[in-house]
Design goal:
By secondary structure, this protein is an alpha/beta fold. It is 43% helix and 17% strand. The chain has helices at 3-6, 23-31, 33-47, 64-78, 102-120, 190-214, 238-254, 260-264, 275-285, 309-329, 334-351, and strands at 51-57, 89-96, 130-137, 150-156, 215-227, 288-296, 357-365.
């Protein structure tokens, strides 16, 4: 499966869209918002740009996309510490895979510009800021922008997605060695976890090298990605959610809704790194220094409208995975699959809490 051609968040504004099912991601972004704004302030004070280049990598198409950019722009032009050296021009680049629903972002731009204009009437700079926004479709595992044109890069919940399914999980005949699993589990052969880690190393190193060419010296990145706490892959965190999805697919197989061949050949292009793995890759590549590398958990008390936690997780995962699931298994199973998934998540949460952890990584270009 060609990930770049198939994978995308569910577009539009319908009930199952990413736009309406990304509250967990929004909560995480809000939790680290102060770090993001402080990092932008540090970059402005250090590099003193009149025209600042900002990129959101893996921007998707929901309300989170432009809200983060608005906060950054307002903080930059209204911060007294930056006056009179605050940027007067903002170049904003929104990046995601070509299959992303960029039209939804474009349709939101008039209201976004109106809000900035209203807020800008009272800003303390010398005249209005010029704001230019462009979409940059393509994989961020490789070069996207000209040399040294960016000052700040932000990426939220994107870097745990690999550029492809690791080739090392397949045997000589092209069959998966990870049968009955869609990700690393306690019964996966050692070759499977090794292959996933090797693919993450390759992808993350390429990401760092590419961004180091595009950032100015002293430029910074704030990266938010899913991970794991220890060296063991099959924990009761992010990996466990994939285990539940695998169980949900198996349950549909027993009902005759999924073919055995399809079940055995589905894998996710995902990797949850640990803190040590991230730090080692950054150190080895030598392009950036680590300013912060912290673990946090998103609060689970944001369920509303009578929706259970399992149902909310199911809607979130569906908005992210539906494109891949439907491409591989067909659209017919999507509804029943995620109903089963939500039920199993609630069932497991009643037994013992599931603790998916997130990393906050702040890097400075050397």
């Amino acid at each position: 499966m060609d990930v770049e051609k198939v994978f995308h968040m569910t577009g539009g504004v319908g009930e199952t869209s990413y736009s309406r099912n990304s509250s967990l991601q929004k909560k995480a972004s809000d939790m680290v918002k102060q770090v993001i704004l402080e990092t932008v302030e540090e970059v402005c004070l250090t590099t003193k740009p009149k025209s600042i280049g900002i990129a959101d990598l893996g921007c998707s198409s929901g309300p989170n996309t432009l809200s983060n950019i608005k906060e950054i722009i307002e903080t930059s032009r209204n911060n007294k510490l930056l006056q009179p050296a605050a940027p007067t021009e903002f170049r904003v680049f929104l990046n995601d895979l070509p299959t992303n629903d960029f039209n939804a972002i474009f349709q939101a731009l008039p209201e976004f510009r109106h809000q900035l204009k209203e807020l800008g009437r009272n800003h303390i700079g010398h005249g209005p800021s010029n704001i230019y926004i462009a979409a940059y479709p393509g994989s961020f595992y490789g070069r996207l922008f000209p040399d040294h044109c960016l000052h700040f890069i932000y990426s939220s919940y994107s870097l745990h997605w690999l550029s492809r399914i690791p080739s090392g999980i397949y045997d000589e005949d092209g069959r998966s060695m990870n049968k009955a699993n869609i990700y690393i589990s306690e019964n996966s052969p050692p070759q499977v976890s090794e292959a996933y880690f090797e693919q993450f190393q390759e992808d993350f190193s390429l990401f760092l090298r590419s961004r180091s060419e595009e950032l100015v010296t002293g430029g910074k990145m704030v990266l938010i990605l899913l991970g794991r706490e220890g060296l063991h892959h099959a924990d009761r965190g992010n990996a466990f959610f994939w285990k539940i999805l695998s169980r949900s697919l198996t349950n549909l197989f027993t009902k005759g809704e999924v073919e055995k061949e399809k079940l055995d050949s589905y894998e996710v292009h995902f990797y949850a790194p640990c803190k040590e793995e991230i730090g080692e890759i950054v150190k080895r590549d030598g392009c950036f220094q680590v300013d912060r590398l912290e673990i946090f958990e998103v609060e689970k008390n944001i369920v509303g409208n009578g929706m259970s936690y399992g149902r909310m997780v199911a809607m979130t995962v569906r908005a992210i995975q539906e494109s891949m699931i439907a491409h591989h298994f067909g659209e017919a199973i999507v509804e029943s699959l995620f109903e089963e998934y939500g039920r199993l998540v609630d069932e497991e949460m009643a037994k013992e809490e599931i603790r998916p952890i997130t990393f906050l990584l702040v890097l400075k270009k050397l």
